[in-house]
Structure formats: structure tokens, C-alpha cells
Design brief:
2 copies of one chain form a homodimer. Chain A is of the alpha+beta class. Chain A has 6 helices and 12 strands. Chain A binds a DNA duplex through α6.
Chain lengths: 232, 232
DNA sequence: CGAATCTTTGAATCCTCTCAAGTCTTGTGG
DNA sequence: CCACAAGACTTGAGAGGATTCAAAGATTCG
């Protein structure tokens, strides 16, 4: 486990175009003025990560924050027994690693893994810290990012951990479809991941997913790519 | 539902002694200097709330924040069907109502109800807003409060919504005991509340609690007050 | 191509729910 | 102060959903 590299696979895309960032409304520092953005330009790098890539690992020293532009990430923690639970799913606009920004020596609290191809910006922790101590008047931007985590946590509880397993899975599929963007097609997480998210077992999940496919609720496009039936 | 008063019962204690606040380490504005604290002194009021009192109600306009000094509060939301789920429990040091501070017209997102006698300070929203726009350099204090909510949300997921119902209940009892302070004695929430927190039904919960009492894990002190067996 | 891993599916078991009736508690009004 | 009604808790019996265990296909990856 500790032998793996942090990123199983990623591609460097050069300096990001923060100023024209497509999701400028919602992404970290999105409402800073252009002067401040130029500071970022020189130190932030934009990368593509493959499905399964690990952005950061629970317990590792916090080097950078990750601002998610496209894709879905699972946030999980593992207890001392080694079993992992998924705390929440994060989509475009979320920033990963915030828990470490309060105390400079805090390691990552959880592991973040790509559930789809990601487009994300990597922000060195020092740059973030300097920017915030120089410009605390932008603190609301940061608080909004924390709020997004809290909303995702509440979603997990209300949508993915309540009611019968069938409903929970349906809610997850809807969330994945929503994060997926225009086409609405998404990669199906593994049975283990769906289990770690819903509290169910891979066996039970496999049974129910088979029902969904047979019942015409879930359609396969190609490979592991699926889409949901349009609800009227 | 909408006919009820906001606070079913509370007692005004006058202006709080913020400077010597017993939980100064962890409560809102705890690390501000004395000059700033004096601003608070003039507008913050300290109250005691009875068990069952509602601090704020989901959907109501956000008038004030509540800084919890002693006691336990349940944070719940109700879906359109009217069924309520408890998202988390908050104890001393938490501040309730933060979700409304980003956008001045946001109503409370959830309902906060006392699960024990509370000692809490009520902070007018305008005072908070002014303090933050005048002194954004203290933003980390606020972020720490958000972090506390997120940790409580994660606790719900990991401790109160995972594993068998018996374990979930045991974890809740431990948390209540932890929040209870020195004596470790706490009020038992209703079967409905324990159900809304664990995802179980009052019947199942009653059965398991009866087992705990018979098994010597849970002891009654008086009335509805209980304490846990000391674990070696 | 073969090993490891994941998915699928069956059968038996277990936990939790539902429904229901009886008991206890609580608050209100006479 | 007591009686009553409403609501909460308790407990039983039966039903159902989900788990466990196991074995047989798929997939993935080197």
C-alpha cells in the first residue's frame, strides 16, 4: 500500500489558464482579481489524471491542494483494521486537501482517488498559505469550498446511506450522471467502492445492479461506461 | 410546526464573560484579542436552554449564530415527506448556523435542537458579519468551526451509520458520554432521535437498549439520566 | 497465456423491519 | 390531586432485505 506512487498515472498540461478557467465561477480563487491570479499562474500546474489515480493519501505530508475542474473523486478514510469507507464524492469545483491548511504540519486526513478521468490543478501548499495570509479578505472563497465538502458529506448521509440499498444505488447513479457533464455518461465504480459508499456488500450490489440493467434503468454505452434512462 | 416558538424554553443570563470564557480555546472568536472581544461583549447574550429547545429552524431567516458552551445539540433536516434525519451531533465548542454566513439572505439550512440542557451564546448575525469584514485576518477561527462540522458529519457516517445497529448505538452512547463532561452522565435521546441518527427504527432500538441495560453496559442514574459502564 | 482480482449467482442464515397489542409516561383539565 | 388522553416505550411474531459463504464465470495485467 505504501509502496505505490502517489499518482498512478497523470499527464502534465503546463501552466493553467486560470484567468479563463472554464469553471471560474466555482473553483478556488475564482473571484480573485487578475493581479492575484497572475501569482497563481506561475506556480500552479494543470494535470490530467487517469481513473484510479490517487491524488493524495491519508497520512502523507500535505504538499499541495487539488482543484478539480472535471471528473469525480472519492474521498475515503481507512480505520485501523484497514477497511476503507468512502466519506463523500466530489465533482467539478471542489478543492481537495483543505483539512491540512489550518495547521502547517497536518498530513492529509483522507485519501482522494479518481473515479473518472480528471482535469485538476495542483496548487503548492505554500502558495496557498502565502496567498491567504496576504489576502485574508478573500476568506469567503475558502469557506465556500469547506461548505461544498460539508454538503457532499450530508449528501452521502441522506442519499447514499438512507433507505433501502436499491434507492441508495439509484441516488449514487444520479449523482454520477450529474457530475458527468453534457453526455451524462459515466464510469461505473467497482462493487467494492459502491459498497464502501452505501454500506452494502459487493454481492448485494451486483444483484441490484443486474436488476437495474435488466429493468432498463441503466444502459451500457461501451466498456465500463453507462448512462441512465431519461426520467420523463 | 411553524406555529411553535423558536425557543421552547430558555433563560437569559445577561452579557457573557467572553474574555474568561471557560472554553475559550475552542469557541468562536476565542483567539481574538481583548479589544475585539469587547465589541462582542456588548451584543452577545448568554442563555441556558432546556432539553428539547429549538435554537433555530430549517428555512427560518438567519438572525443569529449560537456558540455552544455546554450540552449537546442535534442538527437535522427534513425532506419534503416530512421525515427528519439527524445529520450530526454537536457538542461544546461548536457554532451553529455557519451555513448562513456566506450569503446574507440565506435561511438556516437545518434545525438545531437541544438534546440536553445547554449553555450557549447567541451572536447577532450582523455583529458576526461586521467583525469578519473588519478583521478577515482571523478567518482561520471560522474555518476551524467549519472543520468541526465536517468532522461531526464524518463521525455520523463512520460511527453512527456503519456496522450493525448495536455497534452504532454503542458509538452514540460513547459520544454522548464524551460530550457530557466530568460526570459522564447523559440524557438518553428518544427512540425516534436514535432512529433518525442511526437509520434504525424505534422498535429495534428499544430492543437493543434493553439488552444494554440487562447486560450492564448502560446504567440508569435517575429519571432519564444514564451512564456507561467504565471500560477497563 | 496464466495468476490475481472482480463480478455474478445460488442457498442458507441473520438482522432489522413491520404490524400490532399492551404498558408506561407525560401533560392537561376538571 | 386525580383522571384521562396522547404519545412514547416495550415486546412478540412473522416477513423481507441483506449478508455470508461458496463456486463458477469474467476481466485485467504482466
Amino acid at each position: 500500500m505504501s509502496g505505490k506512487s502517489i499518482c498512478t498515472s497523470f499527464e502534465w498540461r503546463g501552466r493553467p489558464d486560470c484567468i479563463n478557467c472554464a469553471v471560474r465561477q466555482s473553483v478556488l480563487f475564482a473571484d480573485l482579481d487578475e493581479e492575484l491570479l497572475s501569482v497563481l499562474l506561475s506556480s500552479v500546474s494543470n494535470c490530467l489524471y487517469d481513473t484510479g489515480a490517487t491524488l493524495c493519501r491519508q497520512g502523507d505530508p500535505a504538499i499541495s491542494l487539488f482543484s478539480l475542474r472535471k471528473g469525480v473523486v472519492k474521498i475515503e478514510v481507512s480505520d485501523r483494521n484497514g477497511d476503507a469507507s468512502i466519506l463523500r464524492l466530489l465533482g467539478p469545483g471542489a478543492v481537495i486537501g483543505l483539512e491540512t491548511t489550518l495547521d502547517s504540519v497536518e498530513p492529509y486526513h483522507c485519501t482522494a482517488t479518481a473515479l473518472s478521468r480528471l482535469d485538476a490543478c495542483r496548487i503548492p501548499m505554500q502558495v496557498f498559505q502565502r496567498l491567504m495570509s496576504d489576502h485574508p479578505e478573500h476568506y469567503k472563497v475558502i469557506v465556500r469550498l469547506w461548505k461544498k465538502h460539508l454538503e457532499a458529506a450530508d449528501e452521502t448521509l441522506l442519499q447514499f446511506r438512507s433507505g433501502e440499498l436499491k434507492e441508495r444505488l439509484l441516488n449514487i447513479l444520479n449523482t454520477l450522471s450529474r457530475f458527468a457533464g453534457e453526455r451524462g455518461t459515466f464510469l461505473l465504480p467497482s462493487g467494492r467502492d459502491l459498497g464502501a459508499l452505501t454500506g452494502g456488500t459487493p454481492s448485494s450490489i451486483s444483484r441490484i445492479m443486474a436488476d437495474f440493467k435488466r429493468g432498463g434503468i441503466l444502459h451500457q454505452r461501451d466498456g465500463n461506461t453507462y448512462f441512465l434512462q431519461q426520467e420523463e
